[in-house]
Amino acid sequence: MDWGIKNRLSRLIQPDGHCFFMPIDHGYFQGPTSSLEKPGETIKPLLPFCDALFVTRGVLRSCVDPANSKPIILRVSGGTSVVGKDLANEVITTSIEEIIRLNVAAVGISIFVGSNYEKETLSNLSKLVNECENYGIPVMAVTAVGKEMGKRDARYLGLACRIAAELGARVVKTYWCDKDFDKVVNGCPVPVVMAGGPKCKTELEVFDFVCDGMQKGAIGINLGRNVWQNPNPVGMARALQAIIHKKATAKEAYELFNETKSSVRTCA
User: Fold this and answer.
1) C or N: which end of the chain has fewer Cβ atoms within 10 Å?
2) In Å, what is the CA distance from 66 to each residue of 3, 45, 70, 71, 190?
3) 162 close to 172: Cβ distance less than 8 angstroms
4) DSSP-based three-state secondary structure for 107
5) pLDDT tens readout for residues 74-119
6) Is 38 assigned a catalytic role?
7) From the CB of residue 10, how many other CB atoms can be counted at a distance below 10 Å?
């Protein structure tokens, strides 16, 4: 592995081998997502707890302070929306010159294995890897499922993750599944981080799946909505950081979440 890629990955993946990425890229296909209407204000109190931001170039330029930021993973795929015909019909939206100009630590791109646009999105990933490797920039592949959430089983996720790694992704972001998630991770020769998916019903539900995934080999999370859409986002971020970097149990994380909630109320 070249020095540049090692250096950039070391900024994202901490010395303990784990990571907490905070995605705020949802607006690229959802528009003004709830709690992300003003992304800069949303992330400000959360930055101390995460290791990197996953963001589009537009929000990066307009909402993220360049003098006081975390390492950036730049979302570079898009071109579709929730009101369009097919979320899978994506293209690469950002040039390599722009990626270099923005001084990012990595780039992220979605792949839609099994969709009508499987070949196109896998080709997007391959082309991006070809370009970024020339400049020492790691690529994170996101195993997206579009609107077909039923695809989130171990067999499908294992297939998608392995293909992403085979095509050159340095990190793969995928969904946790409650059965055989260890097989998904063990079948992928590059680090796996867990996506949050739709907002969970309870905080404990989030802590449970994150703990389970970490125990089964994931190196961390790329989780947004279950943090910044929570009424106590700082408590969620703090508790998740404890799971990722301090090996807290789900119960301990929940206690920490409630302590943070109580302290915020007391201060208020």
Assistant:
1) C
2) 24, 16, 9, 10, 30
3) no
4) strand
5) 999 999 998 888 999 999 999 999 999 999 999 999 999 999 999 9
6) no
7) 12
Segment holding 132, helix H or strand E? helix 118-133
DSSP string, 59-78: HHHHHS-TTS---EEEE-EE
- Do 29 and 228 contact (CB within 8 A), yes or no? no
**Domains of the chain, with CATH numbers?**
3-225 (3.20.20.70)
Tokens representing 132 are 């970024």
Catalytic residue, chosen from 70, 173, 201, 261, is: 173
Q: 196 and 206 in contact (C-beta within 8 Å)?
A: yes
State pLDDT tens for residues 162-180.
Answer: 999 999 999 999 999 999 9
Q: Which residues of 182-201 are buried (b: 16+ CB within 10 A; e: fewer)?
A: ebbbebbebbbbbbbeeebe
